[in-house]
Amino acid sequence: MSDQYSFCETPAAFLWHIRELSDAGPKPHGGADTPTLCGREAAWDIRCEITPASLQTVAEVGAGKRCPHCVKAYKDRSPVKVGQ
Asked: Which residues are registered as beta bridge partners of 66?
């Protein structure tokens, strides 16, 4: 399932979000064309595979912290309950 989704950042670039990819695929240099799973505007994709380990929320504030709403939405959509 992770090949249909990508970690991404919003223009604020504070949290890592997750978005469902369109037919255009990942947009690592900007121009993301679908919203995040929590409904925010996505800006660009992050080259990091979505795995149970990568879905862990980083405790400290800063680069790489995962959006808990996107993580929950991704896990709820997964046919194999990821990380549960």
From this structure: 16
The one-letter code for the residue type at 80 is V
Tell me the pLDDT tens digit for each residue of 63-75: 568 898 998 999 8
Q: How confident is the model at residue 84 (pLDDT cuts 50, 70, 90)?
A: very low
Query: Residue 13's CB: how many other CB atoms inside 10 A?
Result: 10
Is the pTM value of this prediction over 0.70? yes
CB atoms within 10 A of CB 38: 17
Separation of alpha carbons 66 and 53, rounded Å = 11
* Cβ atoms of residues 29 and 14 within 8 Å: no
Structure tokens belonging to residue 42: 């996505």
What is the C-alpha R_g of the chain?
12
